[in-house]
Specification:
By secondary structure, this protein is an alpha/beta fold.
Length: 320
């Protein structure tokens, strides 16, 4: 592959992704952008992911780098290893559970080559939910509202949407530096990196044409609340690092029921909305959401998600 100014590297961090990677690699092989390198970072191979990738790479007419971390070190370590290995002048982050069209890479490249100044580019992820009580009551409407909020966001706030479908030039990545290793658990390493872009004066552009489908793992209240717990911890860490940053309200970010009674309910629920209780609480709430009127189910799920996030945040404040 020749090196040109529009050469792109797609960096894919993955853990337990053996069943997801074939679809993603097939989509990347079908991209209509000619100058493309694929970098797969396997964050501890516990399911034969390396074997899957190397077998598929043999049939792909594009350079494929496979970086294997000897043990699971977390998403930040995988991202940093991937960007360090990549050789492209445009660096695209792509999570392993995204569904890509053939113009995905070309769209990211066009945003950078068409800009007179350095920018960060965000493509949103439209979550694909199975038909579950959680999805009907909470997941689908929350996802729709989150994307609507992102598309309407003021220019100075778009850094909050940095995530699993983003790109920058190599020069910008080297200016900002690697993802922050202090974010060792789930979430907010992306928001932190986006905020650092913003602090450096680099505009973050939300590109509607780059929206992709996301086959997410959080399809029940228990899984969503578990992620909210660790995300709450990471959010508290972000606040400690960047006290000047203006954040939108935390979960649930849906509805308008933020009253004193609501906050009291969330506070009361917080002690039980933490491991190891979340599986049991989630099953109960999904049972309620299955039969309750949808507005009621949505509030019940939201209460558990927000309580879990608060429990995670209190864990950081307590120094645990």
């Amino acid at each position: 592959m020749t090196t040109t100014a529009v050469q792109a590297s797609v960096v894919v961090p993955t853990h337990r992704g053996a069943h997801r990677l074939p679809a993603l690699l097939t989509a990347l092989a079908a991209q209509d952008h000619p100058e493309l390198e694929i970098v797969i970072v396997i964050d501890g191979d516990v399911d034969g992911s390396e074997r899957v990738v190397r077998r598929l790479a043999a049939g792909i007419d594009r350079p494929v780098q496979v970086v294997v971390l000897p043990e699971n070190r977390g998403r930040v370590a995988a991202l940093n290893a991937g960007f360090a290995a990549a050789i492209g002048s445009i660096l695209i982050r792509c999570d392993d559970d995204l569904e890509l069209g053939p113009g995905f890479v070309a769209g990211h490249v066009a945003r950078h080559t068409g800009s007179a100044e350095p920018i960060g580019v965000v493509g949103l992820c439209r979550n694909h939910f199975p038909d579950t009580p959680y999805a009907r009551a909470y997941g689908t409407p929350a996802d729709q509202e989150a994307r609507a909020t992102a598309y309407q966001a003021a220019a100075g706030t778009t850094w909050r949407f940095w995530g699993g479908n983003v790109s920058v030039t190599r020069a910008t990545f080297e200016r900002i530096g690697p993802y922050d290793g202090d974010f060792r658990e789930y979430g907010w390493e992306d928001v932190d990196w986006g905020y650092r872009l913003h602090e450096a004066g680099i505009p973050v552009v939300v590109a509607p044409e780059l929206e992709v489908i996301h086959h997410l793992a959080a399809t029940t209240t228990a899984v969503r609340a578990g992620r909210a717990y660790y995300s709450g911890s990471a959010r508290a860490l972000f606040r400690a690092k960047h006290p000047q940053a203006r954040l939108c309200p935390g979960p649930p970010q849906v509805g308008t029921w933020r009253t004193s009674a609501w906050h009291a309910l969330v506070s009361l629920a917080t002690p039980v909305c933490r491991p190891p209780h979340l599986d049991r609480v989630g099953r109960v709430v999904d049972g309620v959401a299955r039969w309750a009127p949808r507005p009621v189910g949505r509030k019940v799920v939201a209460a558990v998600v927000e309580s879990a996030a608060q429990a995670g945040a209190s864990r950081v404040r307590a120094g645990n």
